[in-house]
Design a protein that fits this description.
This is Dihydrofolate reductase family protein. There is one protein chain. With about 190 residues, the protein is of the alpha/beta class. Helix content is about 25%, strand content about 25%.
């Protein structure tokens, strides 16, 4: 069974709004590119899907936009070509190499996990909370930013029960951010 990995940037005070941490730099974009490359498919809720598509979908005209730094292109190309699954009750169709997941969320994601491959990746805020509550996330990876935001959505706010994890990897960035990867130990409460 392929694992489901949840990765997100988070500030020291737990804010996980995408603009609350440090701006991306070359080192962090290399890290995120490698994360995307480890996944057979990406799993998004509607909000994250639309946000990522607006930023990282290659324009129909061909070249990447002028605002994009050269060191962002590998990430853009990786996420642009990745297989995506979108969980939404409001969208009737998706494109950008994506497919809507319909029906029971737990059963749909369990089916995806049972397919062969290296793993699935989920990002965002709302969908990962639902998946964590269902016990479907196998790894949690938090890139802790050296910032106190003082506002915004907080990481896994509203989680219904405690989840025990163990640290399996740690990486420090020159910016002061620290990536910590945890594996769920699935210990009953």
């Amino acid at each position: 069974m392929r694992p489901l990995r949840y990765s997100i940037n988070v500030t020291l005070d737990g804010c996980c709004h995408h603009e609350a941490g440090l701006p991306p730099d070359e080192e962090s974009m290399r890290f995120w590119t490698a994360e995307m490359e480890r996944a057979d498919a990406l799993l998004f809720g509607r909000v994250t899907y639309e946000m990522m598509e607006s930023a990282w979908r290659k324009p129909a005209t061909g070249p990447w936009p002028d605002w994009m730094n050269e060191w962002e292109v590998p990430f853009a190309e990786t996420i642009d070509r990745a297989k995506k699954y979108v969980v939404s009750s409001t969208l009737s169709e998706v494109d950008w190499n994506a497919e809507l997941l319909r029906g029971d969320l737990g059963q749909a994601v369990q089916r995806l996990k049972q397919e062969p491959g290296e793993g699935l990746w989920v990002g965002g805020v709302t969908l990962p909370l639902a998946l964590a509550d269902l016990g479907l996330i196998d790894e949690y990876e938090f890139i802790v930013q050296p910032v106190l935001a003082g506002h915004g959505p907080t990481l896994l706010s509203g989680l219904r029960k405690r989840i025990q994890v163990e640290l399996v990897d740690r990486h420090e960035f020159r910016s002061g951010a620290v990536a910590m990867r945890y594996r769920s130990t699935r210990v009953p409460a």
